Amino acid sequence: MGKLSDDFGELMIQVCTIQRFIQNDGYADVFGPEVSYPCVISHEVRSITKEDGTISTTTAQIYFDPDVVVGLRDKITFEGHSPKILKISTDHDIEVPGDLYGTTVYT
């Protein structure tokens, strides 16, 4: 487990599932099996700058351990919904900047 769970393990009581994007078969995206991860879900409306430089509005932020791997085309499901992933960021430990602290997914 990463540093986030070391510090906030008792808060990570929510669960999200992630399905890795495999390919588009010409008709629809194809995803791998669902894998469940403990997380913290926050519902805040805020502006973010996406990887392509465009400004977007996020309505939910999902905080994971840094060892959770997720991509922009993956399918994330929480609270019965599968919103589009807008941005993924990694947070670094303040005390040891080389260490990853957590992964945040913005939807």
| CATH architectural designation | Beta Barrel
Spans with pLDDT under 50 lasting ≥5 residues?
Answer: none
Strand count, sense and barrel status of the largest sheet are: 6 strands, antiparallel
Give the CATH topology. Thrombin, subunit H
- Cα gyration radius (Å): 14 Å
Mean pLDDT: 86
Strand line-up across the major sheet: 8-1-4-7-10-9
Label the overall shape. globular
Number of beta-strand segments: 10
Structural class: mainly beta
Features of the shown structure:
107 residues, mainly beta, Thrombin, subunit H, six-stranded antiparallel sheet, two-stranded antiparallel ribbon, 10 strands
Could you characterize what this model shows?
The protein has a six-stranded antiparallel beta sheet with strand order 8-1-4-7-10-9. It has one domain: Beta Barrel (Thrombin, subunit H). A hairpin with a 5-residue loop joins strand 5 and strand 6. It contains one helix and ten strands, in the order αββββββββββ. The protein is mainly beta. Helices cover 6% and strands 46% of the residues.
Short account of what is shown:
This protein is mostly beta strands and about 110 residues long.
List the topology elements.
Elements: H1 3-8, E1 14-19, E2 21-24, E3 29-31, E4 35-42, E5 46-49, E6 55-58, E7 61-64, E8 75-77, E9 87-92, E10 100-106
Antiparallel strand pairs: 1-4, 1-8, 2-3, 4-7, 5-6, 7-10, 9-10
